[in-house]
Amino acid sequence: xxxxxTKLLSVADMITCLIILKLIxxxxxxxxxxxxxxEEKLLEKMIRTEILVENMxxxxxxxxxxxxxxxxxLNEDTVKWKGEIEAMQDNSNTSLQLLQEKAKSDLDKNMxxxxxxxxxxxxxxxxxxxxxxxxRKPGAGDTIIFTDILLNxxxxxxxxxxxxxxxxxxxxxxxxQLCIYTSSYIDFGLVADNVYMDEARYRxxxxxxCCYKLTTTVHIKSGTKVWVKVIYRTESGDTLYHNDAxxxxxxxxxxxxxx
Length: 259
Description:
Elements: H1 2-29, H2 35-121, E1 127-133, E2 146-153, E3 157-158, E4 163-165, E5 170-180, E6 185-192, E7 195-203, E8 210-220, E9 225-233, E10 250-258
Helix pairs in contact: 1-2
């Protein structure tokens, strides 16, 4: 800006000098006249020159004012553009961050779904099978406890209590086989948290020891306790019979579908 003004002032000085030089040459070429007339003409030309210089200075001041205003406007626009660019960058960073968070959330969700599907496809092995009985003449309301473990995948059947605790919610298949003495009978049920899932009455009138089987499929939640419960039985003597060679009493269960 200073360089521009310096150049403009230099041009103005050069013009002033040329005008004065022209006046001198003009006067030297004019016919000789009186001293008063000469001075009058010279003064007139100097006044015109001064007016011309003043006009040029005004034009230069006007140019300087416009240049200053243009520079100020340019600075203002630069600040505005810088702010808009920074805002766009901030918005871009925010949008990128939101996209990254959404992508991570979707990935975590998909990974969880994959794990859930994998758990369903590769279902945990939950199964048990116990035989033999602790008490051959249980009373009404008693639990029939099967004492000998043949299979206990998941370690969920308790031989001390006769209770199977469901480790995973899903659909289970349960089977109960009871052998009863001649001319005896027993009513029992398969219960889950004291709710009967299935019931049966076995009676022998054939004069031989007979074994009967109850099979049921139920949908139960994790943590549910399942056992075999006596409803009624023969009032006197042993009712249940077990023989390792031919007559087995047993209680078994297996998970066939996980929730």
